[in-house]
Design a protein that fits this description.
This protein is an alpha/beta fold and 290 residues long. The chain has helices at residues 5-20, 25-31, 37-44, 52-62, 71-86, 102-113, 132-142, 148-161, 190-203, 256-272, 276-288; strands spanning 116-121, 172-178, 209-214, 228-233, 236-245, 250-253. Strands 3-2-1-4-5-6 form a six-stranded mixed sheet, with helices on both faces. It is elongated, with a radius of gyration of 21 Å.
């Protein structure tokens, strides 16, 4: 079974912490004989999970959360335990495993855990902000399928994902949407796009949803290489993840250095985008033309 993003994130972070201490796998085993080199190696490469006791032993060796006054260390320790606990978890989305890819299942799982989601979209409204009608039209086109049962299932999944926006501690969403994505993309059914634009305006009333439009006259920018999504987690930025989607595949960027580049790209795009109020005015203007 392909390891989940959760398990890969846990393994890569444990390897990073070990290397930051200048320790080899052999050094770890010398300090804690129960942590055999082979076991720790398999944890770091996400081939197996890690038990809570073994994780505590590793984090003690690495000095993470061992000082009661180290709030950042305590937060990281808690997050790593959460990743270990849920690394093999299968949620509601597994009901749809016949129609969603492992990468899509990982995305839903990460959204469920994440504190924040920042995304840049050039031609599509972000999935978490879509209406069912818009989702149906775009899913049919992108997946190049007309099988109703397949499309219906994917629409159900997309609508179910949006529960993260209304949970007790909702996901904080910051979406940068290129103006091109707001133009009618369903010419035979303008009401679909009109309803979608109204949905964006409604969501902008939520304090945890921020939508900004990147105008078509914007100067050259990092988003010209394509859309991407960054998921952030409480307590530390070291474990943030970036998703880059393609027609037949998806890439998760997990290396902290590469994630930092995407973080800078988002900051650049935010600076180029229209302010919140101006974005709302443009969305309303486009909706009124339909």
């Amino acid at each position: 079974m392909e390891p989940t993003v959760r398990r890969r994130r846990l393994g890569s972070e444990l390897r990073r912490l070990r290397e930051a201490k200048g320790l080899t796998l052999e050094d770890v085993e010398e300090r804690a004989p129960a942590l055999k080199e082979s076991k720790v190696s398999r944890v770091e490469t996400a081939r197996i999970g890690v038990k809570p006791g073994d994780l505590d032993a590793l984090l003690d060796i690495y000095g993470i959360g061992t000082d009661e006054e180290d709030e950042e260390g305590a937060a990281k320790r808690a997050l790593l335990h959460s990743l270990a606990k849920t690394g093999a978890r299968r949620g509601w989305w597994q009901t749809y495993r016949d129609i969603i890819s492992p990468a899509y299942a990982d995305l839903i799982s990460l959204e469920d855990d994440a504190h924040s989601l920042r995304t840049y979209q050039s031609l599509l409204i972000p999935g978490l902000l879509q209406t069912a009608a818009y989702a149906r039209a775009t899913i049919s086109a992108i997946n190049m399928t007309s099988f109703p049962e397949h499309v219906n299932g994917l629409v159900e999944v997309r609508m179910a994902r949006q529960a993260v926006l209304s949970r007790p501690h909702p996901l904080e969403v910051w979406a940068i949407i290129h103006e091109a994505a707001l133009r009618p993309t369903v010419p035979d059914a303008p009401s679909v796009m009109k309803g979608q634009l109204q949905r964006l305006l409604d969501l902008m009333e939520y304090p945890h949803v921020n939508i900004q439009v990147l105008p078509s006259h914007a100067a050259p920018h990092p988003g010209m290489t394509g859309p991407f999504t960054m998921l952030g987690f409480p307590g530390t930025a070291d474990l943030d993840v970036v998703l880059v989607e393609h027609l037949t595949s998806a890439l998760y960027v997990e290396d902290p250095g590469e994630v930092s580049i995407y973080r800078s790209a988002l900051d650049h795009l935010l600076a180029e985008a229209l302010p919140r109020d101006a974005s709302a005015d443009l969305i309303a203007k486009l909706k009124d033309t339909l």
